[in-house]
Amino acid sequence: MASHIGKLPVTIPAGVEVKIDGQSFTAKGVKGTDSYEIPEGITAQVEGNEIILIPADDLRPTRAKHGLARSIVASMVKGVHEGYTKTLDIVGTGYRAQAKGKGIEFSLGYSHTITVEPPEGIEFELPNPNQVIVKGIDKQAVGQCAANIRKLRAPEPYKGKGVKYSDERILRKAGKAGK
């Protein structure tokens, strides 16, 4: 028995350079460079234009790391080639965002504005005051940054006001029943 995900090869697209040095894995592409330390018990090899990860044994922890390592390597290769984006919508009267240097200043109904600076490797784009696009090559960092922005004012279930992912569906609740 082996990891179903770990067995799958990772295709290297044109324009992406991969370097494996022992347990150190580095991917370099048009969007940038990313590196990862492959866990013990897993070895990576490049065969043609594919990366194959091989487990040392068939023990449960190794199988788990096998699938995880393959997923992270695949995400890195895609990230340096295409990059990742998360789109957030700001819903509510008076709720908006505006660029302030490299960061964004949010007006979300509080008595003060909230300024968010992008972490390293992340950039923000504001197509309009009610939409924020988070871009980067690291899938985990893009998702975490978008989650931190959403947490500033999570959407509420009655009017749907707040910061939400563009593909998120908010479950709405009925308000108070009138007399």
TrEMBL record:
Gene Ontology biological process terms, A to Z: cytoplasmic translation
Gene3D superfamilies noted in UniProt: Ribosomal protein L6, alpha-beta domain (3.90.930.12)
Keywords, in A-Z order: Ribonucleoprotein, Ribosomal protein, RNA-binding, rRNA-binding
Domain Large ribosomal subunit protein uL6 alpha-beta residue range list: 12-83, 91-165
GO molecular function: rRNA binding; structural constituent of ribosome
PROSITE patterns xrefs: RIBOSOMAL_L6_1 (PS00525)
Function, in words: This protein binds to the 23S rRNA, and is important in its secondary structure. It is located near the subunit interface in the base of the L7/L12 stalk, and near the tRNA binding site of the peptidyltransferase center.
Assembly behavior: Part of the 50S ribosomal subunit.
Matching NCBIfam families: L6_bact
Family the entry assigns: Belongs to the universal ribosomal protein uL6 family.
HAMAP family: Ribosomal_uL6_B
PANTHER family: 60S/50S RIBOSOMAL PROTEIN L6/L9 (PTHR11655), LARGE RIBOSOMAL SUBUNIT PROTEIN UL6M (PTHR11655:SF14)
Identification of the protein by name: Large ribosomal subunit protein uL6
Organism listed in the record: Bifidobacterium catenulatum PV20-2
Name of the gene: rplF
